[in-house]
Specification:
Elements (H helix, E strand, L loop, with lengths): L2 H13 L1 H22 L1 E5 L14 E5 L13 E4 L3 H5 L6 E7 L4 E5 L2 E4 L2 E2 L13 E5 L4 E5 L9 H4 L2 E2 L3 E10 L5 E2 L9
Antiparallel strand pairs: 1-2, 2-11, 3-4, 3-11, 4-9, 5-6, 5-8, 6-7, 9-10, 11-12
Length: about 190
């Protein structure tokens, strides 16, 4: 092959708009898939279980990096894949709830309050006080107790158990829709009183 025929082949691929379009689309798809898989992804809220913090049809960004560098903490709003007990009930979609109990802690719900290791926690973010009793129950290592902020209308850990760390997809980071509620979801964690 002569030098001029090599140049024509490479010049053809450089100047062909179809080849450039395909290269651009493939590059964008690979970057998008990589970002969604390893860094962040968008999610929407399908139920009222997290009211008032999250409303039906809110759109969120879930970030996936922070738990590579630190453990989840009380107060984090997390998205997680169904646990084994939820899979047994044919749940396939991810859940979103707030972490209330950490590995090794004893959690109890009574008289409309949540207690961790016998101490009441502060919860300014809930819709209303829980009208049920739960526990006391010790959380296994590498697992978390999660509850919805709409305590009396949330299918959460007080029904089906704990969330293993390996099931956590990521932490709810920011709401981007609707625009009038745009902003960070970070709230001071519910520290023990």
């Amino acid at each position: 092959m002569t030098q001029s025929s090599k140049n024509k082949g490479s010049q053809f691929s450089k100047n062909n708009p179809w080849i450039e379009l395909i290269q651009t689309i493939v590059t964008a798809a690979v970057l998008s898939l990589g970002i969604r898989t390893f860094i962040a992804e968008a999610r929407y809220i399908p139920s009222s279980s997290m009211r008032p913090t999250l409303e039906v049809n809110d759109r969120l960004i879930i970030e996936k990096l922070s738990y590579l560098f630190r453990e989840p903490i009380r107060g984090d709003v997390i998205v997680f894949n169904p646990t084994e007990s939820l899979k047994a009930e044919n749940f396939k979609d991810a859940f979103i709830k707030r972490i209330i109990g950490l590995p090794g802690e004893i959690v109890e719900v009574k008289t409309g309050k949540v207690y961790v290791n016998g101490k009441k926690i502060s919860e300014e973010y809930i819709f209303e006080a829980p009208d049920y009793n739960y526990g006391p129950s010790r959380i296994p290592e590498d697992e978390y107790l999660v509850l919805g902020d709409n305590r009396n209308n949330s299918y959460d850990s007080h029904y089906w158990g704990f969330v293993p760390k390996k099931k956590i997809i990521g932490k709810a980071f920011v709401r981007f829709w609707p625009f009038d509620r745009l902003g960070s979801l970070y709230k001071q964690p519910a520290y023990l009183k």
